TrEMBL record, chains A, B:
PANTHER family linked: GLYCINE--TRNA LIGASE (PTHR10745:SF0), GLYCYL-TRNA SYNTHETASE/DNA POLYMERASE SUBUNIT GAMMA-2 (PTHR10745)
Annotated InterPro entries: aa-tRNA-synt_IIb (IPR002314), aa-tRNA-synth_II (IPR006195), aa-tRNA-synth_II/BPL/LPL (IPR045864), Anticodon-bd (IPR004154), Anticodon-bd_dom_sf (IPR036621), Gly-tRNA_synthase/POLG2 (IPR027031), GlyRS-like_core (IPR033731), tRNA-synt_gly (IPR002315)
EC number(s) recorded for this UniProt protein: 6.1.1.14
Superkingdom per UniProt: Eukaryota
Originating organism: Tribonema minus
Signal peptide coordinates: none
Record-stated family: Belongs to the class-II aminoacyl-tRNA synthetase family.
CDD domains referenced in this protein's UniProt entry, alphabetically: GlyRS-like_core (cd00774), GlyRS_anticodon (cd00858)
GO molecular function, one term: glycine-tRNA ligase activity
Disordered as annotated region, ranges: 711-742
GO cellular component, as recorded: mitochondrion
Full protein name: glycine--tRNA ligase
Length: 757, 757
């Protein structure tokens, strides 16, 4: 996630909140967290709300408010004023309604979600019995299995499918590496301390919370005044230390205990330790995995037989010592990332496989739309690159691949968009950046960065270590023109003195950039002087020696295009997108994980605790285990309906039930989670069918067409099934034995002869 | 790996070297490292050498040496003495020869191995271009893929097949947790510092190296004297600080610069950091993953519906701030572990699936054999448990499962054994411990610990946090007898004074242990007094109040049985066991990874750089990708033979070659790595065949029986194949085009109709 941080190092950091943290589901969403996220994302959320132009409604309110104020000023009274005020009230109500409709929390039962996530141990506060640690969470069994499958899918979708070079580098990182990358100096948040107690606070958060409280306490505050406070609030994390200090003083903000605060000062967010016994070798826990790949560039290039382009990838941990992680899951101190560094010729960013994805439609929220219409557009990535909206094919290729990956693991495409970084957000060297944002009940969350970082990363390490970080490529033998400065150095020395070195460096750089050189020369010829790197040079100083050489090899520092995944955020978003409650029963939570990522693929239930079912249950588990279909047998004494519900809660897509008929004829029922439909088939046919459903993404529909459908009408009860017409026409009779009933076709079906494609 | 460390905390730590580190392949094996390992493992290695009784030969040398010395002492001279000396010389030669044969380095080409491992980027020193950091290594692409597959196999073999509850806990761990576990106080090595420069050294290593040098410099040293030095050396890491200080002084050991050394003092091996901005919350990087599972016991139990036994598992990192990691790969500072904590009733350690493994033959090196014969025994785990050699079924079950796992990933069964911990190695609370040791060119390396840790871990956390860590089980309602001390406390007070509390505690413990209580009472009745916890109590003091109660539920603190895998060491051992060079060509290294763990399953080669081959190559890649078979296409211009060799070097088991015939008839050749045999088959038949070979572990033999075999005679050359008889009888004709030749059956074969099982 170098993009996240490196951008912050060198830019106006006005989106730092979204880039800073990592998601991890938690049981406690503080009201403060919710407010924080809603506030940050309100404008954007509203703008992009489904079809309703919230911005237009807001503008109408603003206009009508102005009208009313003007009328009052002009002394208008009576019916005319009353009508205008009524119109304003109406406009405000329309806006409020639209905003409420746009708020994603309304379509999502967070209470049921949180209850299920906590109760079924998707997530636990780390070291809970010892009092816990803010910002640290453990993944319990269902989330752990889900994450393993997401990571596995990622590895197949990116590393294996694209022949990427995967590495595993260490988390412990020595000072020199992170000093070079800029993290030691710039990877900071502004902190203030209670001068009496020393208690630390994140300065921007204090300001934001203070303004929230101020506005809540003064609902009658004039709109313009409130808007001014909001403007300050929105920029809270963009101020320089002294600016922010002045603002905190202006607002009279104190510590939680009411004491004075220190001046804001930068606090480095890396966890520091010492490596080795001397206590002198400072090291850090890496804030991103990318640096490990950059420092290995030379060896990776060699592994790839010297050829560029190629991509390296790494899945691993990152760490951030947050000042105030609060309880939310979107800012944690330890998180999993998956990063790709695609090395490519800086002037040839075409991608050979781009045609494969060119027709993929993405939802793009470009720079101009963010500043203008406030609306996203749906456009093929091919058109977006052609139009220059997305800088180049390789960047566009990865955006499309990310979209496909997220769809593959089951993310809702309607709640995904790519937001382009504003010019002020990007590092000076970066060519273009697009964040995949996923809509959750907390608003739009940045989950995957896509950055064209140019040559920056390789260059800083090369400069520091004096190790060449270049690739070469053969070209057709051709004549090439070279320029070398050949002007009046003495005159330059007299003019620029100590700055001569800087001017010379600028001239050397100019020598390699022929179009710029020509423009510069033209200007010198016309005006007699020209600006260069902040200095004015004149015609008399400048001359060039021009040579022509036969060239067969070109050396270059590759550009880096970096897709960077916050796996924890992806995991959390997927949990939200997958959750629903059974219609008419909010107590029954279900995760609709697709079979490929579901932690358990198939539950196995004996109809009751009767020992007669055990051998067949074991056989089913064994058969499915042999084809790598993960199963879990629940032989607890509770009703079948209760066990179905339990399996639903952790998103198990299929369930096999072994009943009395099974013991007789080796057939079982197979139930699909979302439709709750059941089919009956021979045990021997299960492996092929489940391999198709789980690994080959066959549709359940196909299974119901091949095998007889049986239906259980009361999943809530004891698992007994009322008679039901079999969907494909075969009649069903009902048997009842040992207190449990099940349906089956009246005529025996030789399921062993049915084959699933 | 709690076993490794917790054992150290509470025991005579005479095997600390083997338990302390983690393996990771490296390019540089220092001579020192090699010596260290050979020394540590020499006795054991020699004893277990294949069939040759090295110990007996050594004993013969000792006896003959004694005879010669006695003869000299007795004044014997002349022929008689000469003959005795000759016999001694002969015995020494026989011993030397046996030892040389037993040394595993002789059957393993380490130079070729290291060359391949480094050249093909299995491993890289971390942050190499910035000067590197001792004890940190990165895994490059082939090792990274291999490790991912080992971990995936582990997850399927243990977590999924056994319904374990997998968790992912954080690496950052607060002080309180590791203080409770004992790591803050006891997870140390002894360190000395150069008093002049402050340079730190690991004290035991200094002593060991000094004795090595001493013995090398004095080859004529009398055997007994040398043996005494060796004895000191073997115990180097078992001395208390003051003992070790005295020994360092006795040997006159100085620092590397010749300066005096400080007294040895304990150095904690955990990486320390602070969590949060206050700088006061001390945290550490976890030294093992186990603690995360222990502190979550309550929630895991609830997740498992309150039922015991169950197992929790975790795969993740561990960290050790080694004082002197040297360059070796067996002591690194950051490593991957996979740990299982199986919670079970302390008095019911039967395992329901034990019958499944009872007949598995394991090589056991029991406590008595280590002290006696020096020989291992091959015995079924069923017999071992029945005989009481292995303490209980659950421990035995996991030992067998570990053996099966290691065999599954391709470890050589002849180079695996289980070594039981000596009584002095075990923690006082532990019931039994067996280490899976794997033989490498460095000797026997402990790779997996299997420990029955009784209730220790849950108890310490429960005590500290006051959170109950107990499970309950229903029992048939039954009467149970309870005893309560009811004797003469006054008399005890007079007798034991300050010790009364200790005696009372011992009596309370006795009250719960009915057989011990009965024996104690019998002794009191017979002798009038008895020993208890080191005190003598007499008949007149002791009486009990006996009650009977109806009991339906039993509460208990579960015992923990812990298999703990050092994944890095497993990975390294597998690399060694898998490596060989082609007969007659030491330049051609091959890794014989089985298809299931190989990082790339199938290489795809166009016969030449001719563009005509590309579409079919892409199609093959796509077809195989769709069934999750990882491929890598090598379309570089070098010869086919060279590309086969390259694929061999990273252990790719299969290679598809697309040639001119392919373009005509959609058939390709498939080459198997170890036999170098090739078959020809339709492209459409590839997915099924490779799924069988890779995921279903079908034998290559089956493939050669189903499809026509073609043979390339010169893999070293340009990939041209001489005419060869097709194994299954079909004649072969040779075509030669574009400078490359290949064999194919003379008659067209409709391969599309051939199906692989």
């Amino acid at each position: 996630m170098v993009s996240f941080h490196a951008f912050r190092l060198l830019m106006t950091p006005d989106r730092r909140h979204q880039v800073r943290a990592e998601s991890c589901p938690t049981e406690s969403w503080s009201a403060q967290d919710r407010r924080c996220w809603q506030r940050r994302t309100a404008a954007v959320t509203a703008a992009a709300a489904d079809g309703v132009d919230v911005d237009a409604l807001a503008a109408a309110v603003t206009r009508q408010g102005a009208t009313v104020r003007q009328m009052k000023k002009d002394g208008v009274t009576g019916d005319e004023l009353v009508a205008a005020v009524a119109k304003l009230t109406e406009a405000k109500a329309a806006l409020a309604q639209a905003q409420a409709q746009a708020a994603p929390t309304d379509t999502f039962d967070r209470k049921a979600f949180e209850d299920t996530v906590v109760r079924r141990m998707f997530v636990v506060p780390s070291f809970e019995i010892h009092g816990g640690v803010a910002g640290l969470f453990d993944l319990g069994p269902p989330a752990c299995g889900l994450k393993a499958n997401i990571v596995d899918t990622w590895r197949k979708h990116f590393v294996l499918a694209e022949n990427m070079l995967e590495m595993e580098c260490t988390n412990l990182t020595p000072h020199a590496v992170l000093k070079t990358s800029g993290h030691v100096d710039k990877f900071t948040d502004l902190m203030v301390k209670d001068v009496a107690t020393g208690e630390p606070f994140r300065a921007d958060k204090l300001l934001e919370d203070h303004i929230d409280a101020l506005l809540e306490a003064n609902p009658a505050m004039p709109r313009e005044e409130a808007e001014e406070h909001r403007r300050v609030q929105r920029q809270a994390d963009a101020y320089a230390p002294d600016e922010l200090g002045a603002i905190l003083r202006k607002y009279g903000i104190k510590s939680a205990l009411g004491n004075d605060l220190s001046e804001p000062f930068p606090f480095n967010l890396m966890f520091k330790t010492t490596i080795g016994p001397e206590g002198t070798s400072v090291g850090y826990l890496r804030p991103e995995t990318a640096q490990g790949l950059f420092v290995n560039f030379r060896r990776l290039l060699e592994y790839n037989s010297g050829r560029v382009p190629f991509a390296a990838a790494q899945i691993g941990l990152g760490f951030r010592n947050e000042i105030a992680p609060r309880n939310g899951l979107l800012r944690v101190r330890e998180f999993t990332m998956a990063e790709i560094e695609h090395f490519v010729h800086p002037k040839h960013k075409e991608h050979p496989n781009f045609p494969d994805v060119a027709d993929k439609v993405l939802t793009l929220f470009g720079r101009e739309d963010q500043l203008g219409s406030g609306r996203t557009q749906n456009i093929t990535i091919g058109d977006a690159v052609r139009a220059g909206l997305v800088n180049n094919e390789t960047l566009g290729y990865f955006m499309a691949r990310t979209q496909l990956f997220l769809e593959k693991i089951g993310m809702d495409p309607l709640r995904m968009r790519f937001r382009q970084h504003l010019a002020t957000e990007m590092a000076h060297y970066a060519a273009d950046c697009w964040d995949m944002e996923i809509k959750t009940s907390f608003g739009w969350v940045e989950c995957v960065g896509h950055a064209d970082r140019a040559c920056y990363d390789l260059q800083v390490h090369a400069e520091k270590t004096k190790v060449a970080m270049v690739a070469a490529r053969m070209t057709e033998p051709h004549m090439e023109t070279f320029y070398k400065f050949n002007g009046d150095k003495k005159r330059m020395g007299t003019t620029f003195k100590a700055n001569q070195k800087a001017v010379m460096a600028a001239l050397d750089a100019l020598a390699d950039d022929h179009p710029a050189l020509e423009a510069f020369e033209a200007k010198l010829d016309t005006d007699g002087s020209a600006e260069l790197a902040g200095f004015t040079v004149d015609r008399a100083m400048i001359a060039w020696k021009k040579t022509e050489k036969m060239v067969q090899e070109e050396k270059f520092t590759p550009s880096v295009i970096e897709p960077s995944f916050g796996i924890g955020r992806v995991l959390y978003s997927l949990l939200e997108h997958s959750f629903y409650t059974r219609e008419g029963d909010e107590q029954r939570g279900v995760f609709r994980f697709n079979a490929a990522v579901a932690p358990i693929k198939c539950a196995i239930f004996p109809l009751s605790a009767n020992d007669a079912f055990n051998p067949l249950c074991s056989e089913v588990a064994k058969l499915l285990g042999a084809v790598d279909v993960a199963t879990r047998t629940d032989a607890s004494g509770v009703s079948l309906g209760r066990r179905y519900a339990r399996a639903d809660e952790i998103g198990v897509p299929f369930a096999v039930t072994v009943d009395f008929q099974s013991v007789e004829d080796n057939t079982v029922t197979l139930r699909e989670r979302d439709s709750m439909a059941q089919i009956r088939l021979a045990v021997a046919a299960l492996p092929d069918l489940l391999v198709s459903l789980v690994f080959r993404r066959a549709a359940w529909q196909q299974a119901t067409e091949r095998f007889p459908v049986v239906r259980s009408e009361d999943e809530e009860g004891d698992g007994s099934a009322a008679p039901a017409a079999v969907a494909n026409g075969a009649p069903t009779k009902v048997e009842r034995s040992a207190g449990a009933a099940f349906s089956r076709p009246a005529t025996a079906i030789d399921t062993s002869t049915l084959r699933f494609p």
